Amino acid sequence: MIAPTTISRSSIPAIQHSGSIKQVLKRGSDKKMAVQQHYYTSYNSVKNARGGFQMLARSADLEPADQQQIERLLGYRIPKGMNEYEIERHPIALRYYYQNPESCLLIHSQSCGNDNYGRPGNFFAHSLAMPPDLFTSIPPIFFWRSPFWCTSFSSKHAELPALSEMEIDPSFEIEQVWELLQKESARQILAALMSTVIHMEERVRPIIIIDSADNVALWIAALSCLLPPAYRPLLSFTTYHHDPRQSPFTITGCVAEAQFQPDASDYHSYFILNATSGKMSQGEDTAYTRLLKKIASEELYEEILLPFFEAHYDQCAAHARIDSELDQLAATWISA
């Protein structure tokens, strides 16, 4: 059994909310790619003559298979330990799911008050289906807390326009990633998280982060920036899920109020970063994580990591999956 290690709370900074992202990470594609939309909530449908949770509206060209997958992934429950009526405290669930080289899903689920029967627990989900190439440079987590997301509806129109491109400005501040990397303890945690991501395919050990949804978003953003551009669209995540054991995502966030209590076997079956208890599963020291531990600033990122990304861009793009090959590339790079 792998015993959890202890982490310092000071290595988990509070995320800041401010203006738009500095364009340190440039968009990787100028292609015009259609982005299909989907709304879902609990309401009374005149057209269907029924109430309850159901699709509210969608783009006409949204594929039926994409709609079905969206509706499997968007479910939201208020954490057990939170007041049902304190909506502003309920965590936001930003979810990203890679399907295949042609399609991925970005889903924003948020608590929105009472349902159509007057009961608490309603939520509104605004989802997008699009090609993953849009996220090679600006990772999907950078649309965390974007004002683009719809959280309520004012009309009952059944059709939403398709977006001609990604008409969303990323709102996550990349400076927060550089601030996080300045802390040696945070780099140690990120290295452990990254080693788990790299070996996910062979060991199937999902990541659970117990913390505020904002801090979960920060860890995901840092991991995304530390991945080669071609791998960023492959990392699935949710900033919040009420039951991490049932989550289909590689990285799952869970607030303390959800009352998820991992036991010793969970720290072995999953990689758990528990900011509430200060415990963390043990990670593995690998060639790529040793490279990452050196990245303590934006300058070192540009000096050490960007040349590595550029040298292996075509190879990573052709490989098209996150696995131990990244360690092999790093080992060769370090020894060269």
Primary descriptors:
single chain; 336 residues; alpha/beta; twelve-stranded mixed β-sheet; 10 helices; 28% helix
What does this structure look like?
With 336 residues, the protein is of the alpha/beta class. The chain is 28% helix and 21% strand. The protein contains ten helices and twelve strands. The protein has helices spanning 64-73, 175-181, 184-198, 200-203, 213-225, 264-269, 287-292, 298-311, 313-319, 325-335; strands at 5-6, 36-45, 50-59, 93-100, 103-114, 120-130, 159-160, 207-210, 237-238, 251-254, 271-274, 279-280. It has a twelve-stranded mixed β-sheet with strand order 1-12-11-8-10-9-4-5-6-2-3-7, sandwiched between helices. A hairpin with a 4-residue loop joins strand 2 and strand 3. It is globular, with a radius of gyration of 20 Å. The two termini are 37 Å apart. The model is unreliable at 8-31 (pLDDT under 50).
Instruction: State the distance separating the first and last CA atoms.
Output: 37 Å
Task: Report the principal-axis shape.
Answer: globular
Query: What is the helical fraction, as a range of percent?
Result: 25-40%
Average the pLDDT over all residues and give the rounded result. 89
Strand order of the largest sheet: 1-12-11-8-10-9-4-5-6-2-3-7
Specify the biggest β-sheet. 12 strands, mixed
Are there runs of 5+ residues with pLDDT below 50, and where?
8-31
β-strand percent reads 15-25%
Based on DSSP secondary structure assignment, what is the total number of beta strands? 12
Rg result: 20 Å
Task: Tell me the number of helical segments per DSSP (H or I, 4 or more residues long).
Answer: 10
Order of helices and strands: EEEHEEEEHHHEHEEHEEHHHH
- Helix/strand/pairing class, anyone? alpha/beta
